[in-house]
Design brief:
Blueprint lengths: L2 E6 L16 E4 L6 H7 L9 E4 L2 E3 L10 E5 L23 E3 L4 H9 L4 E2 L6 H11 L2 E4 L2 H4 L7 E3 L5 H11 L19 E4 L1 H4 L5 H6 L3 E4 L5 E3 L2 H13 L9
Parallel strand pairs: 1-5, 6-7, 6-8, 8-9
Antiparallel strand pairs: 1-2, 3-4, 3-5, 10-11, 11-12
Helix pairs in contact: 2-5
The chain binds zinc ion.
Length: 252
């Protein structure tokens, strides 16, 4: 029988049974088990793993485990530069696009607020999420680790935080999104680009006070909503400034 010794690092420990956290442990492996099989069998979705070392050398997910192998499993590194090592996932997604599961509506709206294309529908079933992720190269956002274990899901993030603002902060940091944010360029409801419009062309759709106080407007061609830089906007702006220190901003 093949047995291998595992050690998981940092937040990957959250997925393990308590007695296996932050220490080495030895387990029997199924016949011809790969690193990916065993990592997921132990409870960790493959999407959360950035680097696997087997006996000190980087290995991919298809590596078959041999008796006595020592396996170290790492999440995304914060400080240590791992670029010279072979990572388990060869192609990072250049332009981050997302599909959020049905429980993450708040997070989905905030990602749209930052200008990130994010599919979300509170009737989404897991199968639809997997299809969207695969077909449109979207990163799956979920708190359901079983969803992240699906083979077709190559890029995903397990969302640890419970409150949407903290979830946004977590995802922005993990994926280093601050620099590519384009705040207030997408309709929060339709996830389509907003188009700047002349005040005159939307005048009849504006409440009197807005007509009086604001000059810059944009509209969504899908739902016809008109956006302006009102108090809601300013509140979001404040939250974004806090989240994106030195970020690009939207020029307002
Ligand atoms: Zn819209």
């Amino acid at each position: 029988m093949v047995t291998a010794t595992f050690r998981f690092y940092e937040e990957l420990n959250d997925f393990l049974a308590p007695k296996r956290r932050k220490q080495e442990f030895t387990v029997p492996c199924a016949r011809a088990a790969t690193t990916k099989h065993m990592i997921e069998a132990l409870g960790v979705p493959h999407t959360e793993v950035e680097l696997v070392l087997v006996n000190g050398e980087s290995a991919d997910f298809n590596r078959q485990l041999q008796d006595g192998d020592r396996v170290a499993v790492y999440p995304r590194f914060e400080a240590l530069d791992v670029t010279p090592l072979l990572r388990v996932r060869e192609h990072p997604l250049r332009e981050p696009r997302f599909v959020a599961d049905a429980h993450l509506g708040g997070l989905a709206h905030m990602l749209r607020m930052l200008g990130f294309d994010t599919l979300y529908d509170n009737h989404f079933h897991d199968d639809a999420i997997v299809v969207a992720a695969e077909r449109e190269h979207r990163i799956v956002l979920t708190r359901d680790r079983e969803l992240l274990k699906r083979r077709a899901v190559t890029h995903g993030c397990y969302v640890h935080a419970l409150k949407s603002e903290e979830q946004l902060r977590e995802i922005v940091e993990r994926l280093d999104l601050a620099r590519s944010a384009k705040p207030f360029t997408l309709c929060l409801h339709c996830n389509v680009p907003l188009r700047p419009v002349d005040k005159a062309s939307v005048l009849d759709r504006l409440p009197p006070k807005v007509r009086e106080h604001y000059e810059r407007f944009s509209t969504c061609d899908a739902c016809g909503r008109v956006y302006w830089e009102g108090s809601h906007w300013r509140n979001m702006r404040r939250m974004l400034d806090d989240l994106l220190p030195g970020g690009e901003g939207d020029g307002t």
